[in-house]
Structures are given as structure tokens and as C-alpha cells.
Design brief:
Structural class: alpha+beta
Number of domains: 2
Number of helices: 2
Helix content: 10-25%
Low-confidence stretches: none
Order of helices and strands: HEEEEEEEEEEEEEEEEEEEEH
Distance between the termini: 20 Å
Number of strands: 20
Mean pLDDT: 91
Shape: elongated
Strand content: 25-35%
Length: 271
């Protein structure tokens, strides 16, 4: 009886984490560049009640008797499928089509990576710095902050599909500015560590950073100016998953109640 109580309790904990993950997906359904997360499970240890070589009369049995001891969350995995594009009136709104990430410099001096291309131009000491809405500078293909001259007209800055910034000359013909926005990939993007503001941090599981500008073996990511990549959360799927998780939680709670009632009944038996 105690075994069933603990197994059902582990199921309730696991399903609660599942609901937490689903609710976070639904909360970020309109977050630019957000990637949906999926809770995955694994069974706990099994307890052997009877080995396959024992029976009542000593004969060999082909199958043993093992009872599972519950479940736990094995991981919460981000799914990096492409999100839908939405038009933006901002000249510094960029959407990525492909597997690449933008790079930004965090306040701690470390590099972070994101699919959120909702950038702004902020005036600094050396010029106009391309940064996130939180003020973190966006990095170029060499890993340095992107800074434009102070005297340029921001609305005339354009970016090509390969991430190269251009500016019109006296004849209004776009000319390269010698600045390419940094685009980076990872062998296992699901291994990235999630932080706040849709930022990701490199880990041993994600693998080393792969710079598209210096790695010819990578399929290049396309940059689309005037668009933002929406989240890839599928609301209908999340609602179905929420119902399934709620029912699983309810069934586990009923199993605990049934075990408790059986224990109460056993305690009332008289010899």
C-alpha cells in the first residue's frame, strides 16, 4: 500500500511539472522568438517481488514479477521549429529563417543567443549601437557590438538576406557598410541553458558556438528586415496536452485516495 502511495504521489508531482511547462508555453504564446517546451518523463526504479527462477514448486519461470516505483521528469526540452513571421513597422526588426541565432553581450560580459530580433538603435559614446530592448548590444560576425556612425539616418539602414548592412550613397544606391550581423548555430540547440528575456547560454550539452560567417559547412540563415518571428507555440496542442495532464493528475490523486481507504480498511480488521 505504501508503495502505491509513493508511486501515485510521484505521478502527481510529475504532472504538476507538466502543467507548469504547458502554462509557461501558453503564457509566452505572443513572445517574440519563444520556442515551445515539452516535459518528458522517465520511470523510476523497479522493485523485484519474485525472480524469474522461482515458483511455488521450485520450477523455473520465464518471467519475473517487478513493480514500478513511480515516475519523474527526465527533461524539459525546447523545440526549435520555425515560428511564423509577423510584419513590423520598425526598421530594426529582423526575423531569422533557418537554424541561426543572434548574439548579444550580457551585462556580465558573457555572450548570449536569441531568436528575438526586436532590436533598437541606442545612442552611445561612439555612435548608434544596435541593441535589444533591454539595452544589450547585438554582436556582429566578429563577435563585437554593432555600432553605426552618429550622422547616419537610421531609417535608411537596410540589411540583406545574408546579414550585411547597407546604406545608400549620393545616388541612392545601397552600398555595403562593412558590417555583418552575427549569425550562429549549435550542434544541439536543445542543450542550451534557458535564461530570461528569451536568451540562451552555451553549455557543454549544446556544443561549441558555430559561426556561420566562418563555417562553410553550415546551411546559412536568412535575415528578413521588417519582420519578427513569433513563438512556435501551438495553442490547440497545448490545450489538449493540458487536458491530458489534468486527467493524469486526477487519476493519480484517486489512486492515493483508494490506497488510503484500503489501508484504513485493513487497520479495522479484527483477529
Amino acid at each position: 500500500m505504501v508503495r502505491s502511495l509513493w508511486s501515485a504521489a510521484s505521478g502527481m508531482i510529475a504532472q504538476q511539472n507538466n502543467v507548469d511547462t504547458i502554462s509557461n508555453n501558453l503564457a509566452n504564446v505572443n513572445t517574440t522568438g519563444y520556442k515551445t517546451e515539452v516535459a518528458e518523463f522517465k520511470s523510476l526504479l523497479y522493485q523485484t517481488i519474485q525472480t524469474k527462477t522461482t515458483s511455488a514448486n521450485g520450477e523455473e519461470k520465464p518471467i519475473s514479477a517487478q513493480v514500478g516505483l513511480g515516475v519523474r521528469n527526465s527533461s524539459i526540452t525546447s523545440v526549435f521549429t520555425q515560428g511564423n513571421f509577423f510584419a513590423s513597422t520598425s526598421d530594426t526588426a529582423f526575423a531569422l529563417d533557418g537554424e541561426g541565432f543572434f548574439a548579444v553581450r550580457g551585462q556580465d560580459g558573457e555572450n548570449y543567443y536569441t531568436r528575438n530580433g526586436n532590436f533598437v538603435l541606442s545612442e552611445g559614446v561612439t555612435g548608434l549601437t544596435l541593441s535589444t530592448t533591454d539595452g544589450l548590444p547585438v554582436l556582429n560576425s566578429q563577435g563585437n557590438p554593432i555600432v553605426f556612425a552618429r550622422n547616419i539616418i537610421a531609417s535608411k539602414i537596410e540589411i540583406s538576406g545574408d546579414g550585411q548592412f547597407t546604406y545608400p550613397d549620393a545616388n541612392n544606391n545601397p552600398q555595403p557598410m562593412g558590417i555583418n550581423i552575427g549569425l550562429f548555430q549549435f550542434t544541439n540547440p536543445s542543450g542550451l541553458e534557458k535564461t530570461d528575456s528569451s536568451l540562451y547560454k552555451v553549455t557543454a550539452a549544446s556544443g561549441a558556438v558555430l559561426n556561420e560567417a566562418t563555417n562553410a559547412n553550415l546551411q546559412k540563415t536568412s535575415v528578413n528586415q521588417g519582420y519578427l518571428e513569433g513563438s512556435n507555440v501551438q495553442v490547440v496542442d497545448e490545450m489538449v496536452n493540458l487536458i491530458v495532464a489534468q486527467r493524469a493528475y486526477e487519476m493519480n490523486s484517486k489512486a492515493i485516495k483508494a490506497s488510503d481507504e484500503m489501508m484504513q480498511q485493513a487497520n479495522t480488521l479484527r483477529g
